[in-house]
Amino acid sequence: SGSTDFVRQAAFIAEKMSLPCAKPYKPIPFKEEPTFENVEISRLESPSLLGYLRKRGIPKEIAQQYCVQVDYRLHGKDYYAIGFENNAHGFELRNPYWKGAYPPKCITHIDNGNARCNVFEGFIDFLSAEKLGYNDGNDNIVLNSVSNLGKALTPLSDYSVINCYLDNDDAGRAALAKLRKEFGDRVADRSTLYPDHKDLNDYLVSITPIQKSKLKF
Q1: Which CATH number fits domain 36-205: 3.30.420.240, 1.10.10.60, 3.40.50.10610, 3.40.1360.10?
Q2: pTM for the whole thing?
Q3: What is the pLDDT of residue 60?
């Protein structure tokens, strides 16, 4: 009868649910995103922010070409940071004390109409390549986080050469391996240019002469 079928079905479902492959339910802890207030975008002019970039080997002209200044209020306090815009109109934010982002997170694709594309994990490495002359008119994709790699696959499929300036760490090597699997020998590993440094900016800093500030008497 129908009721027996129902009981049998219920017993079958109960048995299936008690199987060891059923993972116990774990609620995902709620992580509160910081709420930005009074966000203002302006030309990058702050001496302390430009000074921070200079210490990292990035001259003012390059910084002002690709970055902006973002003033914002967070947790009731006022801050300002270097901002680097992504394709979703969010910003990567960096100052001497903090590294974060104004959402949404996304890649930054700088399209110059070239058949070659350079790939960087973060914008400081992209700015470093500009300073070192490695970009040379190529298109550029800045991941803004290796977790954004999936978002880069569709635009990267259009390029005949993909130059990867990724970090010399596990995350950088994993990203390179994924790109190689996806695009084969179109992918060139440019981290061989800085084998003894953790990333391209670290290499740039190592070869940039320290500018001594003028002594005032």
Answers
A1: 3.40.1360.10
A2: 0.82
A3: 98
